[in-house]
């Protein structure tokens, strides 16, 4: 179907929120174009391909709580894009390892976290390596300008899914209410690091050799995942993703990425008995997420309004408007898509 009267939308950001919104609008017959500053879709569900391993450097897994998200996750499961993980989860308290069995439903992308976002982006118009720097409104329609001064549009609607501090700069010249709403959402930073090894990790006494992930109660670390113990990656060599606690990330925001990775690996090593040596490292690195996780998010008491819409065709969605998880981001984008489709 191709009709000149189909509404048009530009969506800034091809993370899970932007893609969820795009899918709803596309199904409703809108003409949607996604603009993504990175080289591919994924956002904070991205993975990095190294010579020895594919490591997830953003979300490590996601949980399923809401019915609409459960239905969506079931389609991903059937398509082989996700699989349950982790189900062998440990917790470290005072350097002591305990098996954590809470029975919660969790999934990881297969064979990488970004399998989900790549799948969702299929068939949609997506401009990558395209950072939108400003918006202009003319005759009731929106034009976008990118970092290379190229113009895109016009569009009837613009959906911004960038973390709120970045979204604020785009909406401020056009809508003070939206800009103010962005100010109320705090996104905290997180350092993510990875280390690849030439051998599997040695077994620590009292810990099952096939542990998949571990959460930490204190210290610099909050989560460590074994990438080769994730679904679809059994053939790759041993590698860890190490996520720092948010407070530690804030205190070490300007540290060099290799120093961060070494510090986090040392912290992990200290939780193992002295007799358990780490294998030789073949690759190590880090990624700083300046806006990793909403600490104060906007939905709060009004969880049904997990997005923002203005009368002039601007809209905001993403985890900052609902909560700090993949599921929250998806729901925010999904709900905004339905609200826009219903408004047409
Ligand atoms: C290290 C880390 C670990 C996490 N672990 C978990 C976990 O285990 N479980 C869980 O449920 N959640 C986890 N999360 C949170 C989860 O990843 C996020 O809540 C979710 O992915 C956010 O999706 P989003 O679409 O709202 O935002 P994003 O994924 O950030 O998408 C926004 C997109 O907009 C793009 N963009 C920004 N500005 C522009 C611009 N000007 N022009 C064009 N494009 C732009 C960005 O590149 C990005 O791709 C984690 C996050 C991090 C950082």
UniProtKB/TrEMBL annotation:
One Pfam annotation reads Amino_oxidase
Q: Which domain of life is it from?
A: Bacteria
Q: Give the InterPro entries listed for this entry.
A: Amino_oxidase (IPR002937), FAD/NAD-bd_sf (IPR036188)
An example molecular function term from Gene Ontology annotations: oxidoreductase activity
Domain (Amine oxidase) spans: 98-334
Cited PROSITE patterns? PROKAR_LIPOPROTEIN (PS51257)
What PANTHER family does the annotation carry? FAD/NAD(P)-BINDING OXIDOREDUCTASE FAMILY PROTEIN, FAD_NAD(P)-BINDING OXIDOREDUCTASE FAMILY PROTEIN
By what name is this protein known? Amine oxidase domain-containing protein
